[in-house]
Amino acid sequence: MLSRKKALQKKREQIIEQKGIICLENVTKSYGSGKPALNGISLNIKKGEFVFIVGASGHGKSTLIKLLLRELVPTDGTVTVMGYDTAKLSHRQIPEFRRNLGVVFQNFRLLSDRNVYENVAFAQRIIEVPPSEIRRSVPTILATVGLAGKYKAKPKQLAGGEQQRVALARAVINKPEILLADEPTGNLDPGNSWEIMKLIEDINKRGTTVVVVTHNREIVNAMQKRVITLKNGVIISDEEEGVYQDED
Ligand code: ADP
Ligand code: MG
């Protein structure tokens, strides 16, 4: 006999197999009485994919990311992430759900009064990783993002590209199933943008599913990944090895 927990885990694995690790079915999200931010979109992302979400400002990209994080639930339709219907997650399931999602934002969102080491270690302390393991894993991940020498710096002593590397280290230290990035290079110069995107690509190559919202046409066109374009809350194109569609 499988335990109830194991049985549920098996069911989620079957859903991931059938629908992908991310699945939106006829999803509408309205904030009020006006035109919905997302309007009846459907989408499947398979485990291990790298997907760009593009589109002009105000067309629903961040709303999509918030639905995947379960910061929002849909007004209509279903959002299934890692086999969980996000609208049906119980309070007990939310920490487990969140632990498997890494997230980075345009404005880094680091803790300004803590140093680099503490910013990254914090992600492990809140899920009660043993201190001995934290002392091992934080330096390893900081070396991976090229910040081995900057443990003690506070965020404001770092350049933007370095701050985003800290945010990325924090997002992936718990080995999430999915990494979500909402305009991660929006505040960076072209050189740092490329370096951050290459790090995200490396994370994807090690097995993490990646969804990146971006306005960086050059990077999207060069990287030859799947590109989904949102316009007025609907998907107007979804292409493997796609390019950045023109904005108007
Ligand atoms: P994007 O990330 O593509 O710029 P958003 O998903 O942030 O777009 O926004 C899509 C639409 O939803 C916009 O019209 C925006 O004004 C609206 N919107 C976003 N967040 C809220 C909110 N919290 N309350 C009301 N309207 C919102
Ligand atoms: Mg946005």
Explain the overall architecture.
By secondary structure, this protein is of the alpha/beta class. It has a domain at 107-175. The protein has eight helices and ten strands. It has helices at residues 4-19, 61-69, 94-99, 116-125, 131-144, 160-172, 190-205, 217-223; strands at 22-29, 38-45, 50-54, 76-81, 84-85, 101-105, 178-182, 209-213, 226-231, 234-239. Strands 6-7-8-3-9-10 form a six-stranded mixed sheet, with helices on both faces. The chain has a four-stranded antiparallel sheet with strand order 2-1-4-5, sandwiched between helices. The longest helix is centred in the N-terminal third of the chain and has 16 residues, at 4-19. It is globular. It starts with a helix and ends in a 9-residue tail after the last strand. Magnesium ion binds next to helix 2. Adenosine-5'-diphosphate binds at residues 31, 37, 55, 57-63.
